[in-house]
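Entry 12.
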Amino acid sequence: MKLCTNVNEVKEMDGYFKIITNSIEIRVQFLTETILRIRAGFDGDFAEESYSLVMTAWEDRMDGLLKGQRKRVVPATASLSQTEGQAILTGSQLKVVIEKDPFRICVYDKEGTCLHSDIVDLGYLEDSNHRRIHTSEISPQDCFYGFGEKSGQWNKAQKFLSMSPKDAMGYNPKETDSLYKHIPFYIKLNRESKKAVGYFYHNTYECDFDMGREKSNYWKPHSRYRTDGGDIDLFLIAGPSIREVVSGYTDLTGKSAMLPRYALGYLGSSMYYPELEADCDDAITEFIDTTKEEDIPVDGFQLSSGYTSQDTEQGVKRCVFTWNEKRFKNPRDFFAQMKKRGITVSPNVKPGILLSHPNLEQMKAKDIFVKDSQSDEPGIGTWWGGKGVFC
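Predicted 3D structure (tokens):
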């Protein structure tokens, strides 16, 4: 177990500030005037190897892979002043107050509004299961929005959220967690100050968020981020508006490409139509014709993986890159009919091939699979329907 309770030293380094606590080193960097990076180095190496960031101020192992997509910036400047009890980092827009004993970090905007404060004795912690935990003070006036693909109420105050992405067929839209996307980012908006701040935890390990659901007589109201590994690597993004927070977040992680016009319209999608016993193609075109009759604009249709169902030695399996011709008599004609109706079709494609796939040997011969990191053999994984190889 590691717990940061007090500060031994705060020192200005080249482009960041080093905080030496009784337990670990924590680094604070003003990436921009309104984006602050706080990184608690539980592993001690501060390795930089990100697939997520398109804006950095440091060398990263993925720079070659993301060449042309990533922008290198010079960190914003800030000054360090210290007293016996505090170290203060002052930038043009943000001020960081490091309270030394007991230890916590507080962040203020230039108007003196507190945007973030750690909870003393819970701020940065590695528990006995080696999970890394960051705990922040919250108030009843705080609303929380984001967390990627989540259902239920928009405001996640007093909610517990898991980020362990799964195929959640049949999920309860009010209560079930989690869905597909791992996006450990949320926006805190205070009802009184009307100011927003973004929290992006730069970590791909499975994690969870407790947004004030847990109550304790021993601590102030708090939220908690807990991850199974990696560092607490927090990018704190000041607003004050939600629009400005989102702009800062997308500066950091990338903005959407300009979508084609059809992608902005209604996209029909169903497990039902592509998984009928026969004539799924006719059922789908009939659905499209019905929407036209009812003046419902439709621009696309997404096929669930039922169109790939094949008889194999292990029973009926979804074999990607194949067509069930009982369900879809003539795929080429089906696409032509959908195009005639102005519909773009997007078939579901899996990232792997089942070991029972009828074309497995041909695909092996073409050497299309991702190789295992410990051998020269295709990587094996488990998902819907059994084991398969990644491609």
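Annotation: The helical segments are 242-253, 280-293, 331-340, 360-365. Residues 218 and 330 are 67 Å apart (CA to CA).
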